[in-house]
Amino acid sequence: MGEADTSSIVDDLLLKNFYAEVSEVERDNEVVRILSCFKLNAFEYLNLPFDSSPEDVKKQYRKLSLLVHPDKCKHPQAKEAFSALAKAQQLLLDPQEREYLVNQINAAREELRAKRKKQLKKDTASKLKSLVDEGKYEQEYEKSDEFQQQLKLKVREILTDQEWRRRKMQMRISEEEGRLKKDEEESKEMWKRKREHEEQWEGTRENRVSSWRDFMKGGKKIKNTFGEFSPMCAFLF
Known about the structure:
Blueprint: H1 3-20, H2 24-35, H3 42-45, H4 54-68, H5 78-93, H6 95-122, H7 124-132, H8 136-142, H9 145-203, H10 205-218, E1 222-224, E2 227-229, H11 231-236
Helix pairs in contact: 2-5, 4-5, 6-9
């Protein structure tokens, strides 16, 4: 067994021992935190910074999942919280899902930067300091709790807007599919009635032919002011 494997086993044991000593109140609080998270942001469920790596995601999931595991936590919604963590990890480890989320986070960050830039134009002292520090001033600001909170809220705003757009599009697609299905059913019903009519008409052919023959045998010519009609004319009129 290598040194890395031994270290990993030791870490696991320490982690399990630590969570064995965690109070029930702390476990319950974590369940409440998880279930109160913004549902469209997997980073919030795992309580991770937006720039966390996939490896960070795996480690954090392991820690939190041990904390709220239904076998360890007595909270009635522990299972729900545990499932939410598992889904969050799955999303953040999926390349496409992660890329989508990161793109929305970057869009939120750029919006805040643009807003910040406008504010600095009005604040001469801050603008000069930003120029002197060659961007370091802004880098430090983006690490601040104030900026991180703004970013978190802006990400929520953008994700909500995107989800609303997606749902509206899905509604339109569903409505269009429903309309097409209705048109298709009406078309089928129309052709069905037409076929039934043709079948009924075809089914009476023999009777019509027989009636015509009987008429031809016993029919009489009909006279009117225009002269004499043949039996066929009498039948038609």
